[in-house]
Amino acid sequence: MKKIMLFISILFILLGSVRAEDTFKGKGIWIHPGDMGKNEADVEEFFKLLDRCGFNIVFPLVKGTGGKIFWHSQKFPEAIHSDYKEFDLLRAAVKYAHKYGIKIHPWLCDFPEGKDSPAFKQHPEWAMLNPRGGLTSEEKLDQDRPYNPVWMCPVRRPGYTDQWLIPMIEEIVRDYEVDGIHHDYVRYPGDVAPDSYCFCDYCLEHYLTYNHFYYHNRPQDQISLKKVLPREEANWHNDLTLKPPDWDKMSREEKADYLLNGKSLNRNDLDYYFYETRCDAITRFVREATERARNIKPDIEFSAAVFINPMRSARHIGQRWTDFLDWVEVMAPMNYRSHFQGSFEDYLVYLEDYIQQQMKWCEGRSSLYAGVTGHYIYLEEREPWEEAIHILSSEKIADAGRDKLSELMEKNIAYLEKFSLKRAKQLNNTFKSFLKNKIQNEKLAETLREILRDPPAGFFPEEKLLRTIETVKKAGAEGVVIFAAGIIQRNKLWPALEKALAK
Ligand SMILES: [Zn+2]
């Protein structure tokens, strides 16, 4: 009897461990074109490496934020990146991904295009406009840093969504044996002026009609709020019109101001409709993309890189990704450390907490593959180098700056010594030359940058990446997606991934 009990206990333990392993099913990575190379042999080598590390799903970039594409499109040949006119990168990626049993979801940066992109050149009217009628590319991140992408309006029809983006997705699904499509930038811009788009002519009318702010059969009717109940907002359910009588004479800026700051009941609540309308436009695109792709290939999957909190991203970038669950099989929130405050240890706690909530948001309807990066987790390792580079970038370094630089360099040289005596010695010599004014600031800065670009193995300790992935598993996510192949290559972290992911 005891033996039987023991046998049953062992069986349960085994089954339990199998089940725990099975729930962590997705091992994915984002890949930039350059990471795969420019010929078949490079691509095969790359997929061999991914296979060795245990990856079973990949997201190779096929449409960048500048609008350039990386497949041999019949419909949009003018958008093909000049480096890949001869070599069909996606064709090779599909071939070798499948050779090694890896699923492939080509990754599209959905709504940004470039100033020189064919879509924007052919159809400038498809671009998003701010209240002043300006493009996103006229915004500035700060005084000296221009913002490059031209974001396209998701609402306008016919427009970018139905004439360009969805046809691109259809073409990939029709012409390539892909397993899925991966959405990124499936939203409004968030880093510059998140509240300023879109106020194109089409959108301005759309806010009024979509929210039924007037009767299109009786456009002259002005109906104000009927107050029956004492509390003003309690009268919300009675009809009213919210199109101002002088709407047609108002400037774009005045219309935008009304939509952002106007009142429908007893407070300035019209912006609610503005934000909801933006969310609905993005969700409509997600739904239509999936429906159209499924018409071509019924078992096609969709995945999406989304922001960590669907409630907050709904408000700020029109990305209420809880609305995508019926059309996106794999949700990959970008749980990068850069979106969290505090130490690395704090990050691990916050990461686990957020993943647990993201699983709830997914309701078991989409699989949650947590996105993490091999870059931002190394804040502590990078910071003293970046700080030194920053000091060196100023024309004249004050005495305090010089002291600080010496302190940082001493620390950096000692750190580098742990991984490469030779390179630490070289850096020490370069720094000595700098102190004797034999070399310029820029030369020393470049030497420091060179070490960050090509650090010795161990410089970015694998333990941090391993603990991050361990936390993702512990939190109960169904998978992990690593950002990105180029960073893993640069930071010499492939062996760490092999440890964490390979069976
Ligand atoms: Zn618009």
Strand order of the largest sheet: 1-2-4-9-10-11-12-13
Helix content percent band: 40-55%
Contiguous helical run count: 18
- Gross morphology is globular
Strand content: 5-15%
Estimated radius of gyration: 27 Å
What structural class should be given to the helix and strand makeup?
alpha/beta
N/C terminus separation? 36 Å
Q: Would you mind describing this structure in some detail?
A:
- It is a single chain.
- The protein has 503 residues and is of the alpha/beta class.
- It contains 18 helices and 13 strands.
- The strands form three sheets. The chain has an eight-stranded parallel barrel. It has a two-stranded antiparallel ribbon with strand order 5-8. Strands 6-7 form a two-stranded antiparallel ribbon.
- β10, α10 and β11 form a beta-alpha-beta unit.
- α3 runs parallel beside α4 and α8 packs across α9.
- The site of zinc ion (ZN) has 8 residues, from α7.
- Zinc ion binds next to α7.
